[in-house]
Amino acid sequence: MTTSAESPEGRPYAAHLVGSVPLADSETVFRTVAAKLGNHLRRIPDGETGIRTNWIQWQFPLLVEVPQFESADEPAGPFGARLQLRSGASGDDIVFPDLGYRDAAIESYAVFSRLKREGVIAERVRFQVCLPTPLAVVHIRFIPRDQEAVEQAYERKLLEELDGILEIVPADELAVQWDTAVEFSILEGLLESFLSDPQRDIRERLVRIGDYVPEAVELGYHLCYGDVNHRHFIEPVDTTKLVAVANGVCEGVSRTVNWMHMPVPRDRGDAAYFAPLSELRLQPSTECYLGLVHITDGVEGTEARIAAAREFVTDFGVATECGFGRRPAETIPDLLELHANVSAPI
């Protein structure tokens, strides 16, 4: 499998930031990333700073306040206490408050735009907005009986917030990434779900929310096996399930998929992990990013994983497995430099 982006000097053709960068605020993130790694990136996220650092955890206090929900009668799930619909309530009754994604993006874009005008951020770089899949938020916090109804309502609200972002951020400056993690917990059989055919149903949902993003806006997917205390919820045997999801999405959407990101565990530099990548069938212009950058073994370990991956996939960029949100802020500059040291400038 190759992409339209060729890699000069034999190095991976670019770097990608998954989302969270736990610095003080979005301006600090933009300035730090642009200085350390800007020549290697096509997009820059705002770092999901403050209450957004720990991915979707900041959504849970909002859910508790929805009048149609109550604490579940059933035992807690693997991610903690769960909610259910109140007796007599239906999915049509659910009224969510503002989820915060629109407001955060608009506030950060104002900073991004100013820094572009000042020349801090290159003109070609897009503003990256990372959104969770509706399935993720709902599966973690609701009992299976009510997941389908709540998911439909949450998806409507989240896409409404995306519409609000599209009203403010010019399409030719915007890139939207769908964070796809809980789906793999379902596919691995770790999380109870209402889905009757998880592989088919997950593909349909990822295609639907991908097609919602206008063609002029860049679209990407971050495929993930979780990052709780720097550990996956299960160690992937290999890239088989990642490849299946990536292929299904790229085949199913009616628009361009601009990038696809897949994780690589720190201790997996073996051929067996990467071998399924030979079956990767992305769209011709889709950038493939492999999350094989690990600060624990630096350039040497990262380059060893790059060499192992190249046996099965020709061209790709580099990234970490997940966002930086659970990482001490003082380690961020070195981690950004590591990305630059193992990838080619654009």
Question: How would you describe what is shown here?
Answer:
- The model is unreliable at 1-9 (pLDDT under 50).
- The chain has a single domain (8-342), classed as TIM Barrel, CATH 3.20.20.210.
- By secondary structure, it is α/β, with parallel strands linked by helices.
- The chain starts with 25 loop residues before the first helix and ends with a helix.
- It is globular, with a radius of gyration of 19 Å.
- It has helices spanning 26-37, 60-64, 101-117, 134-141, 144-168, 182-187, 198-212, 240-252, 271-274, 298-309, 332-342; strands spanning 43-45, 69-71, 83-85, 126-132, 174-180, 218-223, 259-263, 287-291, 317-318.
Number of strands: 9
For this structure, what is the CATH class? Alpha Beta
User: Residue share in helices?
Assistant: 25-40%
Shape: globular
Number of domains: 1
Our Rg estimate from Cα atoms comes to 19 Å
Beta content comes to 5-15%
SSE order = HEHEEHEHHEHHEHEHEHEH
How would you state the average pLDDT, rounded? 92
- Helical segment count: 11
Strand arrangement in the largest pleated sheet: 1-4-5-6-7-8-9
In whole angstroms, how far apart are the ends?
Answer: 21 Å
Can you summarize the main beta sheet? 7 strands, parallel
